[in-house]
Amino acid sequence: MTITRRLLAQGLASSALATVVSPLVATARTRRQAAAPGAERAGSLTDVPGVRVGHVTHPDRPTGCTAILFDAPVVAGVDYDGSAPGETLGVMLQPVSPLERIHGILLTGGGPMGLEAVGGVVRHLEAQRVGYDWGIPNVRIPIVVGAVIDDLSLGDGRIRPDAAMAVRACEAATTGPVAEGSVGVGAGATVGKMFRSRKMGGMKGGVGCASIRAGEVIVAALCVVNAAGDVRDWRTGRIVAGARTPDGTAFADSLTVLRRDLDTSARADRTLDDQPFRATTLTVIATNVALDKTSLTKLAMMTNTGASRAITPYHTNGDGDQVLTVSTGAVKPAVSLTALGAAAADVAALAILRGVQQATGLPGWPAVRDL
Asked: Which of 30, 62, 264, 282 is the most buried (most CB within 10 A)?
């Protein structure tokens, strides 16, 4: 029995959940994943035509990677507000760079070392003759942006995604509904983990998706929820997943704990597990509306406002939060960037909520469905 299967066998997932809702690609094969109660499908990143997504989950540890590919090169932008983003080639998406279009994105676990898996997507696309013509016979240069989360503390941290796994994620990529929860890059994602040194345990995170369609306009999100803070349903203010009290019976409420930490006259343990790289929320926004790179940068900035509704606190001192935005340019309606940004913020907040709702618990890291 593999480590992952042993962890799941020992975990806290409820046996009462038997509703099957979506295909889960763990290799090139298709599995099935149970849905958390009250979490009906809210759309997928692949609702934008021309976008494909494939997951691969490592069989021996809760880690994996998720490849996002495109039928044609897409214009892309980025917003790096995190303190310690783990990424590759993302700096080229800033407006000062003349590079307009990219060919793929890889989201991966494994901490900074997991970024070596990006080479697998490059290899896959090059074999498909996808990429920029470099003026050299038989050479194409695919531009693949990579982004990573830290999941090294779950299981054997020496096991992490590599180039071969990324190739399999590319081969698994489809236009079908994207599997959510503890799959692909979300396999080892966790939330509410700033106070573990104070005996306040966190919970399981994962991948979530959502989309909005209005006429011919589509705005969709895929989020990897690996946050230091709590995840809230912003519509009610209720904490859905996050740091738990030492006895595990209630939410600690990270904001309340941090407010108490401000009172230096009180004798209290102020140890904070918020080191660089340890927590990161990755968000990808796709739209079919034609936008240039500067507009996509603004779209990424507005998207962060939605993430801040769902994660409290967000953009902590040690996080690596990143938002990537892409446009297929298929439609050119008279839509304001403000309207698109408001929609992107909404779908990001919902995708974050779904990332924890769809997660599967592991020992020491219960999921929403377990509570």
From this structure: 282
pLDDT classification of 277: cutoffs 50, 70, 90: low
Query: What CA–CA distance (Å, rounded) separates 131 from 168?
Result: 19
Q: How far apart are CA 49 and CA 203, in angstroms?
A: 34
Average pLDDT rounded to a whole number, residues 269-273: 83
* CATH superfamily label, 19-359: L-amino peptidase D-ALA esterase/amidase (3.60.70.12)
Domain segments of the chain as ranges: 19-359
Closest to 268 in 3D by CA, of 257, 276, 279: 257
pTM of the entire structure?
0.88
pLDDT tens per residue, range 346-363: 999 999 999 999 999 999
- Helix/strand/coil (H, E, C) string of the chain? CCHHHHHHHHCCCCCCCCCEEEEEECCCCEEEEECCCCCCCCCCHHHCCCEEEEEEECCCCCCEEEEEEEEEEEEEEEECCCCCCCEECHHHHCCCCCCCEEEEEEEECCHHHHHHHHHHHHHHHHHCCCCEECCCCCCEECCEEEEECCCCCCCCCCCCCCHHHHHHHHHHCECCCCCCECCHHHCCCEECCCCHHHCCCCEECEEEEEEEEECCEEEEEEEEEECCCEEEECCCCEEEECCECCCCCCECCHHHHHHHHCCCCCCCCCCCCCCCCCCEEEEEEEEEECCCHHHHHHHHHHHHHHHHHHEECCCCCCCCCEEEEEEEEEECCCCCHHHHHHHHHHHHHHHHHHHHHCCCCECCECCHHHC
Torsions phi, psi for 234 (to 5 deg): -65, -20
In the predicted structure, residue 9 carries a pLDDT above the cut 50: no
